[in-house]
Design brief:
heterodimer, A: 313 residues, mainly alpha, MetI-like fold, B: 520 residues, alpha+beta, Dipeptide-binding Protein, domain 3, seven-stranded mixed β-sheet, 30% helix, globular, membrane (chain A), MetI-like_sf (chain A), transmembrane (chain A)
């Protein structure tokens, strides 16, 4: 197990290196000029050229890459071109909102998606099943920007139970933080809940058709025990896979959601960084997100082993 | 109404004081300041929350890259030597008085003012700020504004003298805005200044969380007094919340989450029309949509093709569809309220059939570049159908902002759709960048000596009549040559809670909140 872990962690190094190269080069292919945001649209060409030299943009690409990757290896992600803040500090500022949003969405997925999926599977082909799967399809096919607007209209403007947008850190005002996180978390969580619901229902139905379930039924075990202990545990392995895949998708979902609800998260950091061509920030933030997703995949594989003792590493 | 919702008591006193709100009045009122004034007692304190869509990247005025929107925030923390009122006149601020003789401007500074960090404001501090903007090493975005200042000299602690290389009619305007904002030299030297501003202004910087909000607290020792002698500012705290989505911004206004917004597009503010809690005032601020034609290559190097383009565009139709009917039509960046506006300038009349005939039957292929941001793509599509009907074969490319600018700088387009906010502080600031052959945003690639000469005349003269004449000629020339086609000008009213009063506007519509008050 320890050996497996070390091997998997070692495999991350070449992956991250390739990601860094591709990321760096892709960003350099973007048309546009970081000096537009820094100096304003009406700066003279000479001022722009001077600033580009200051930022080291007149040196060859390989040189710029080595400077950057050398910094990353020594723990220095560089400074924002736009605001001159250290990139690492900016990321630390922005991580909490996104992590919180993701965690609440995942929590919703587990707390709502799995029980609803179980219910739908147990009540197969009843009105309950149709209602739940119908809701699932609706949640999957509703775009986040639309759902967000709808939630704001109903809960912020009509009912006035939550503010339309805004953010306070959890550490400063836990209640205020959670009140403002409800709508964004529902928005982002809707898809994950739906995916988990559908997957749970599907794989539980498959498990319930297995021979060992018939055996368990024959021994006279209670239905509840058969479903929750015998069938569900086996059915959860694909659910975990799908949920883990959703974590990557969550990152892209947060972009839209963070923008609408004005949450200071990683999604808006990356997108605004691209729009303003603040490439050091984009590079640092994407690298952090990629590392995070790779680690989640690793943890997922470890969870398989826990869920299904037949899987060993 | 130029300064909407001014407190009634203030208004009457203002009217009484008339034109004497000058050096003398300011000094004497400052001396007799007390909180017991009738107007000052009402609506004092409270937190004003502002919904702001354009977060500054820095709060260092010397490095601010926005054309004007940062000033809404900077005005909280900074003062200038002199202020420019909405009507264009200059009034004393950190300088009690000043004298000009063409080649020098001498300022006598107000006594007893300190920066928020306790650093005294004196001639040394003022000189430090102006020299910092001029110094090429600062890479100040405002350096060009002080290009005619040869030297900045400290005569004594209260006297500052600027020696000019050439007379500059715009100098006082610049000194009254970002390029002349006074920052604490102590704080600037301490570093990381862009995120820790220290000025002499009505509010003291408190906190700034990127993409969330920025807070300023009342400066209890602010030097400026209201015209009735009461202390300023009236608000206890101002919070700028950075909300970019216009629908959410409207939701925040509706629910009272914010009491003032920078701007909302017509489709959003039209929905606020019946709300009694909300005041909307047309202050004359407009957004000016335009199409710049690339004259450096075919087909728009041919004046006849440009004329056909102008005849093809139904500006009324575009305005109705893209601005919910809330727009004006004007022949240039001028609005009907501007002193350089001339209603006799008229663009070619809508005549698609005439355009088609002029083009000679074969569809003329052109590339139109537009920005991916509502409502620009809609406008581009409207133009596309109008142009097709008039014998062009337009291809529309909707691009992200930086990509579009990149294409325009490289003159890799035929027609470019874009917008600017108007009015600016001076017409030279709207026209020169776009129409001078040396202009930084000369998208069309113009090298028109007539235009250059007119623009130079207008920018160099102190005489308003001469300047007006020159700017009218400039506009005529642009329209006659059809270098650009000016589309509609959507309205951009000042939108705020009915409880909020006392917002004072700069010439270009940016706010000053030192006199603002919230009724409880």
């Amino acid at each position: 197990m320890i050996g497996y872990l070390v091997r998997r962690l070692a495999q991350l190094i070449p992956v991250l290196f390739v990601v860094s190269v591709v990321l760096f080069l892709l960003l350099r292919l973007l048309p546009g000029d970081p000096t537009t945001e820094i100096l304003g649209q009406e700066a003279s060409a000479a001022d722009r050229a001077a600033l580009r030299a200051d930022l080291g943009l007149d040196t060859p690409l390989w040189r710029q890459f080595l400077d950057w990757i050398g910094g990353v290896l020594t723990g220095d992600l560089g400074r924002s071109w736009l605001t001159d803040e250290p990139v690492a500090g900016v990321i630390v500022d922005r991580l909490p909102a996104t992590v919180e949003l993701g965690l609440i969405a995942l929590l919703l997925a587990v707390l709502i998606g799995i029980p609803a999926g179980v219910l739908a599977a147990v009540r197969r082909r009843t009105a309950t099943d149709s209602a739940l799967t119908g809701l699932g399809v609706l949640a999957l096919s509703t775009p986040h920007f639309y759902l967000a607007a709808l939630l704001i209209l109903v809960f912020a403007i009509w009912l006035r139970v939550v503010p339309p947008s805004g953010y306070v850190p959890f550490t400063e005002d836990p209640a205020g933080n959670l009140v403002r996180m409800v709508l964004p978390a529902i928005t982002v969580g809707s898809t994950v809940v739906a995916v988990v619901l559908r997957q749970t229902r599907g794989s539980l139905l498959a498990a319930l058709g297995e021979d060992y379930i018939r055996t368990a039924e024959a021994t006279g075990l209670r239905r509840r025990r058969i479903v929750t202990v015998y069938a569900l545990r086996n059915a959860l392995v694909p659910v975990v896979t799908v949920t883990a895949l959703q974590i990557g998708a969550l990152m892209s979902a947060t972009v839209v959601t963070e923008t609408i609800f004005t949450l200071p998260g990683m999604g808006t950091l990356i997108v605004n960084g691209i729009f303003s061509r603040d490439l050091p920030v984009v590079q640092g933030a994407v690298l952090v997100v990629v590392t995070f997703v790779l680690l989640v995949n690793l943890v997922t594989d470890l969870v398989y082993a826990w869920l299904d003792p037949r899987i060993t590493y | 109404m130029d300064t909407p919702s001014v407190h009634p008591a203030l208004l009457s006193r203002r009217a009484l004081l008339g034109g004497t709100v000058g050096a003398l009045a300011a000094v004497s009122l400052a001396a007799c300041g007390s909180d017991s004034g009738t107007a000052g007692g009402k609506g004092r304190g409270g937190t004003l929350t502002v919904g702001f869509d354009n977060e500054p990247t820095t709060l260092d005025p010397a490095l601010s890259s926005a054309i004007s929107s940062d000033r809404n925030v900077l005005n909280l923390f900074y003062d200038t030597l002199l202020r420019q009122d909405r009507d264009g006149s200059f009034v004393p601020a950190l300088a009690d008085r000043w004298t000009e003789d063409g080649r020098t401007v001498t300022f006598t500074l107000r006594e007893g003012v300190t920066f928020h960090d306790g650093t005294p404001f004196d001639a040394e501090a003022a000189a430090f700020n102006l020299r910092r903007v001029i110094d090429p090493a600062t890479r100040s975005t405002k350096a060009a504004a002080l290009k005619n200042v040869g030297s900045v000299d400290v005569v004594d602690a209260r006297t500052l003298r600027l020696t000019l290389k050439a007379s500059d009619p715009l100098l006082l305007i610049h000194l009254a805005h970002e390029p002349g904002m006074m920052a604490s030299p102590t704080a600037v030297k301490a570093g990381d200044y862009g995120r820790k501003p220290v000025g002499t202004g009505p509010f003291v910087f408190d906190a700034w969380r990127s993409k969330v909000q920025l807070t300023g607290k009342r400066n209890p020792t602010y030097w400026r007094r209201a015209t009735d002698g009461s202390a300023l500012p009236r608000l206890e705290q101002v919070v700028f919340r950075f909300v970019t989505d216009t629908k959410v911004l409207r939701a925040e206004v509706t629910t009272g989450g914010v009491q003032l917004v920078r701007t909302l597009p017509p489709e959003e503010f039209n929905q606020l029309a019946g709300d009694k809690q909300i005041t909307m005032t047309d202050t004359g601020v407009r957004r000016s949509y335009y199409v710049a034609l690339n004259v450096t290559r075919a087909p728009f190097n041919d004046p006849k093709v440009r004329a056909a383009f102008a005849m093809a565009i139904d500006r009324e139709g575009v305005g109705k569809a893209a601005a919910g009917g809330q727009y004006d039509l004007a022949p240039s960046f001028a609005t009907a309220k501007d002193w350089f506006y001339d209603p006799s300038i008229t663009p070619p009349a809508l005549d698609p059939a005439g355009a088609k005939t002029a083009l000679g039957g074969t569809p003329v292929p052109i590339t139109v570049v537009a920005r991916r941001r509502a409502p620009d793509p809609t406008i581009a599509e409207l133009l596309q159908s109008q142009l097709t009907a008039a014998g062009f074969a337009p291809k529309v490319e909707v691009l992200e902002a930086q990509t579009q600018l990149d294409r325009m700088r490289k003159q890799d387009f035929d027609a470019a759709l874009l917008v600017i906010d108007i009015p600016r502080l001076d017409p030279s600031l709207s026209f020169d960048p776009y129409f001078s052959s040396r202009g930084s945003n000369n998208w069309s690639g113009l090298a028109d000596s007539t235009l250059d000469r007119l623009l130079d005349t207008a920018a160099a003269s102190e005489d308003r009549a001469v300047r007006k004449q020159a700017y009218v000629e400039v506009q005529k020339r642009i329209v006659d040559e059809n270098y650009w086609v000016f589309l509609h000008q959507p309205k951009s009213p000042l939108i705020h809670s009915a409880k909020l009063s006392g917002i004072v506007l700069d010439v270009d519509g940016q706010w000053r909140l030192d006199e603002a008050a919230l009724a409880s």
